[in-house]
Amino acid sequence: MIKAIIFDVDGVLSVDKPILHARHDAMYYAISKKYKISFSDAKKKYSNSKLNLPEYKKHTSVYKLGSLGFSREEFFDIINDVDQSKAVFPNENLLSTLRKLKDKFILVAYSNTPEIATLKTLNQLRIRDSFTKVFCADHFDESKPSKRNLLKILKEVKLKKEEVIILGNSLEKDILPARQLGIKAILFDDVGKYKNPEPPVIYDLIEIFNYL
User: Fold this and answer.
1) Structural domain boundaries enclosing 170
2) Confidence band, pLDDT 50/70/90 cuts, at residue 36
3) Which of 47, 67, 80, 123 is the most buried (most CB within 10 A)?
4) Whether residue 109 is found in the same domain as residue 198
């Protein structure tokens, strides 16, 4: 029996593109300042940074910046300092979906973004009170796709693997690690990022009710 749903934040609760654009620009600026290079060269340097990383780290910004000499704390500071006021928008049917879910399930937010930025997002979306627990990047020693983080979350919410569903928009960071642990995971792919993804997959948040 499902008792809890764990939501990724950026790209599931909020529209992915605007906030990612703002945060990537902040990272490019930090790289340009650190290496005294142009913004465009910093962008290329960030893109190429994944070449030096193992496969499971290539999709995660904190690891990319880490390969360029930034600490986890420096990454957190960069992201937390981003002005999100004009970059956070709710995904379609967000409020109505959460309203129906929160009376029946424990709702948990789990983000690869540090706490200050994550709470800004939830507050801007006016959904902070919908979540019993909020787990952020600076609550862990590792980042997604860490399976250890998921086990820690289960322990803290006092639930078994079969009692939880994870909803994420990244196959690599959200879905695969959950499935490897035996946790049901639903891919949210509203922008059609993946071609023929293995089900379950939804394209609108309201479709989650098909799996509950």
Assistant:
1) 4-16+89-211
2) very high
3) 80
4) yes
